[in-house]
Design a protein that fits this description.
Layout (H helix, E strand, L loop, with lengths): L7 H17 L5 H7 L5 E2 H7 L5 H13 L3 E6 L5 E6 L7 H18 L16 H16 L6
Antiparallel strand pairs: 1-3, 2-3
């Protein structure tokens, strides 16, 4: 694929437009939240379960911002208890190509970095204590001290 060369004016305009888009879709949860609503309307707890790891406070903030930017609607039903349903707006369809491009890139990048080339060991941050990090650091510094200077 050939890269397009832009004039300085067009480049500056593109920078502004990309920053505007990133401002609206910033953070690690907005696009996954939109993707979770692609299958249909959901209640708050359903969304939270699907987006494993998001806190209620962050989810509430993200939904409010998506509603302000007209990507999501919030419908309150007068039931006992009150039901609140979130769903995508017609306007949110403008993100379909963006989401598909990010999905394809994510798949391609994962295959390039992880798939078949190397295994990157990962630990869940919540399972790693400060003591474990300090022990690992001391093992690294201990082993580096034992390496002969001429090696």
């Amino acid at each position: 694929m050939e890269r397009i060369i832009l004039s300085e004016e067009a480049c500056n305009k593109s920078i502004v437009e990309v920053r505007d888009a990133l401002y609206v879709l910033n953070g690690k949860w907005k696009l996954p939240l939109i993707v979770s609503l692609l299958t249909g309307p959901r209640r708050f707890n359903e969304i939270q379960r699907e987006l494993n790891g998001i806190t209620p406070k962050v989810l509430s903030k993200e939904l409010r911002e998506l509603e302000q930017n007209e990507f999501v609607t919030r419908k309150v039903y007068n039931t006992v208890p009150v039901s609140v349903i979130y769903e995508l707006t017609e306007y949110s369809k403008c993100l379909d190509n963006v989401i598909e491009a990010l999905r394809a890139f994510g798949q391609q990048h994962r295959e390039r970095i992880i798939g078949g080339k190397r295994e990157i060991p990962r630990m869940k941050p919540e399972l790693v204590s400060t003591d474990q990090i300090q022990q690992a650091d001391s093992r690294v510094s201990d082993s580096s001290e034992k390496v002969p200077a001429h090696a």
